[in-house]
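Could you show me just one protein sequence together with its fold in token form as a worked example?
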Amino acid sequence: MPKSMKYLLCRGVRAMHVFAVLLCHATAQTTNYPSNATSCDQCHSVPSNFGSSRLTVQRTGSFSEGRFIPGLEGGIRHRHGEFHQAREGEITGERVSISIFGDGYLEAIDDRDIVQIAEQQRAAKSGISGVAVFAPVLESNQAREGVKVGRFGWKSQHGSLLSACADSLRNELGIRNRLYPIEYKNRKAGEAAAPMDIPDRKTGQTELERLVAELRKTTPLPRDEALAASSDAIDGEKLFDQIGCVLCHVSTYKTLPPGTLINGGSYRVPDSIGSQTIHPYSDFLLHDVGTGDGIPQSATPEYLDQSTANKFRTAPLWGLRFRPWMMHDGKSVTFHQAIARHGGEAAAIREHYEDLTPVQKQQLRAFLNSL
């Protein structure tokens, strides 16, 4: 068994305890209340817990006077306990489940690095012009510092892992918490809420905090080192840069130094994450590549930005070889299909790809398969 896969299996075993705890609470609620799954690992399972999957979340809403209005419960149509009533003129869109391996490192990327990439794209006047999203840090008590450059979710609607996880718990598993405290309308009166916010007597951590702590311990999925060292993959990486993919799929970042306070002063970058060089292959900016469905998303209603309706976050490519589904809806199952769907800002990049010879395309595939 390859060393990287042994590592993933070990991580999966370590994660099972926290996932199992959430399963107990989620199962108790999803019998009667809306949810998309009965446990975290139902959607985050490939190649192991904290990975991705083919399962999608359906967003819903409608337009009123040219503005998108989310449907019930923040615009999510749940699979279980559904009470959604379709409205005339309703539009829908799919969002595939995203891998959350290594998200603790993404959380520690300096906001300024992401903003600088957006500025460089605009200055280059190449047609690529990503938008940096400023998302609320829901756990912050500092009003002036309660925003951060977003990087999590298909619309970069979250900048902190605690905010992102709290959102997923409430809207994917039906578990309310202190950051998303509003209960479902059909919840039985007097029934106790799930104890996600009750501190453990020994550690002082809540279950939500324990989950986030586990996520922050995950490391990025390793590359296929043997394939990465092949001549095809090496040449393919050069082509990746030459045709312009790297303009959005930015390969390299360095995380903030250990001890740096982030997330509105609510979290300090640990030694294990600080000052690390990582290769996520994303700019975490929103782009219009011609695949938009007209549905914006945000962490809270007041941050809903109508201008992002047809834009998506550049998908990080690390761990790409573990997921044979691509783009925001997962409908592209080959690299060629995914690249062929790139229009809008990325139309010229797609044309550069189309001009490659069959041998060059194979080299590019070898590089992508190594990620």
